[in-house]
Amino acid sequence: MVQSTCTLWASVYNQALIEEVGTMEGFPYRRTFLLGFGFFGISIIWPLFNSLIPPMLEDLGLSALAVGFILTWDNIINMFVQPWVGSLSDRTRSRFGRRKPFLMFGAPAAGLFFILVPFVRENFILIALAILGTNLGMAVFRSPTIAYLGDLFKPVDRSKANGVINLMGGLGGAVALFGGGALYKLGVPLPFIVGAGIMVLAILVVVLAVREPALPEPEAAVAAPGLWASIQSVLRGPEYSPLALLSAIFFWFVGWNAMEAFFTIYARNVLGIDVGSGTQMLTAFAATLILFAIPSGLLATRIGRKPTIMAGLAGMLLGLVAGFFIRDSTMLLVTLALMGAFWALVNINSLPMVYDLGDEGSIGVYTGLYYFASSAAAITGPILAGWLIDLTDHRWIWIFSAIFLALAMLAVTRIRVTQRA
Questions:
Q1: Residue 394: which residues within 8 A CB-CB, separation 6 or more?
Q2: 43 versus 29: which is more confidently predicted?
Q3: Which of 74, 103, 120, 286 has its CB 3.0 to 4.6 Å from that of 173, i.e. a possible disulfide?
Q4: What tens digit of pLDDT does each residue of 247-296 get?
Q5: How far apart are CA 310 and CA 312, in angstroms?
């Protein structure tokens, strides 16, 4: 079975290389990689945030439930700010374009507050304010950055483009986890300072190098549906497919965000591994996400987004169940690596599938809806998981996440979305 699985992935990866060469003239790879710096920058911050800040909060004497609640602040903000900013960016008209003003303000603000976190970590009020400032800054520019996927690519190319872009994002996550873990051992503030600096530079590349498409006529912009109208449209979709898709996104992010939020604490309390090494262990997950980002997009282009996502969810579910029983750090590292490959199948194709629900005039709105669902999940996951950990122990985070991945699979079976050309 292992040999056949490896053969399957090898054939998919070889096909990715063949198609990449064969379509280089028709597909804008250069533009895609430049846009990928935006995902790279975003992906630098969150792995550091989710792996290094929870132990700081626990060291202040907070319970797992309280730590989980604080980790949801960004997602509470995102539920309201990101859909609003996404909709606002659809209508923004400036000398810099629609999306770039939000990048130019949000990224430096987020970087500044993120740098402050380790310097105020012994005072709850100050670290809470630094976390809140980081969350607000990130929320301002994240949706407009992601919305470029819809702005710059045809529907048929979005899974492929999202594969390339998430390759960059996965690389950012791997750099953050491995490099951040190493820097943390040298000095607690170092990963925050370096991470913030890299994030700002990456967003600067997008601002300077990515050319926004021509803006719609003012009349068309005024006529574009607002956020609430778009939410109503999604909820009233045929056969409940839009609602099923957003529910699936909610469930799978509940599962994974809970695991990500508590993994370093799990590693320290159950496996006896220090925080820096626990952070580096997650690099295995990020590394295989990088390796299978482009093949995942190409596979979905060939067989469809829904079956690709279902395969990814099934693999993640098996990995989570196995993780509950594993106590050997090497075996856990292998399990995380396999899960990263399957997560690529899900993560690369979910946003393009959301865009299949709407029209080209509401890309920012639909980006906001995607992050509304994922942010609601990221609020729910750490809080519920923290409550469960307080009642039991850290091992049960694996079963908690597995249950929500199973619910996501059930929701995906209800989706009847037509992939647009």
A1: 64, 262, 265, 266, 269, 270
A2: 43
A3: 286
A4: 899 999 999 888 887 887 888 888 878 766 777 787 788 788 878 878 88
A5: 5
Mean per-residue pLDDT of the chain: 78
User: Does residue 167 contact residue 33 with C-beta atoms inside 8 Å?
Assistant: no
Kindly tell me the sign of the dihedral angle through the C-alpha atoms of 242, 244, 250, 255: negative
Cα angle for residues 341, 347, 348 (degrees, 5° grid):
90
Matching residue, tokens 């770039």 = 100
Q: Pull the structure tokens for residue 169.
A: 């994002």
Residue that has been written with the tokens 């509304």 in this structure: 372
Distance CA 1, CA 338 (A): 14
Domain ranges of the chain: 26-211+224-412
Q: Which amino acid is at 181?
A: G
C-beta neighbour count of 418 within 10 angstroms: 9
What is the spatial distance between Cα 153 and Cα 185, in angstroms, rounded to a whole number? 42
* pLDDT reported for residue 248: 92
Q: pTM, whole model, 2 decimals?
A: 0.65
Angle at 317 between CA 316 and CA 318, to 5 degrees: 90
Name the token pair of 312. Answer: 């990814």
Query: What is residue 95's DSSP assignment?
Result: T
> What is the dihedral sign for C-alpha 45, 20, 100, 348?
negative
The 3-state secondary structure of 315-373, one letter per residue = HHHHHHHHHHHCCCHHHHHHHHHHHHHHHHHHHHHHHHHHHCCCCHHHHHHHHHHHHHH
Radius of gyration of the chain (CA): 20
Cα-based distances in Å from 280 to 44, 48, 228, 263, 336: 14, 11, 41, 11, 12
Q: Are 207 and 382 in contact (CB under 8 A)?
A: no
Q: CA-to-CA distance for 84 and 80, rounded, in angstroms?
A: 6
Q: What is the DSSP string of 165-232?
A: HHHHHHHHHHHHHHHHHHHHHH-TTHHHHHHHHHHHHHHHHHHHHPPPPPPPPHHHHHHS--HHHHHH
Token pair 């550091």 is at which residue? 48
- 39's CB contacts (< 8 A; 6+ apart) are 145, 146, 165, 166, 168, 169, 172
Residue positions counted in the chain = 421
Give the separation between CA 34 and CA 164, rounded to whole angstroms: 10
Class of CATH domain 26-211+224-412: mainly alpha
Contact call for residues 35 and 152 (beta carbons, < 8 A): yes
When comparing pLDDT for 43 and 159, which is higher?
Answer: 43
User: Would you say 353 and 418 are in contact if contact means Cβ atoms under 8 Å apart?
Assistant: no
**What are the two backbone dihedrals, phi and then psi, of residue 246, each rounded to the nearest 5 degrees?**
-65, -35
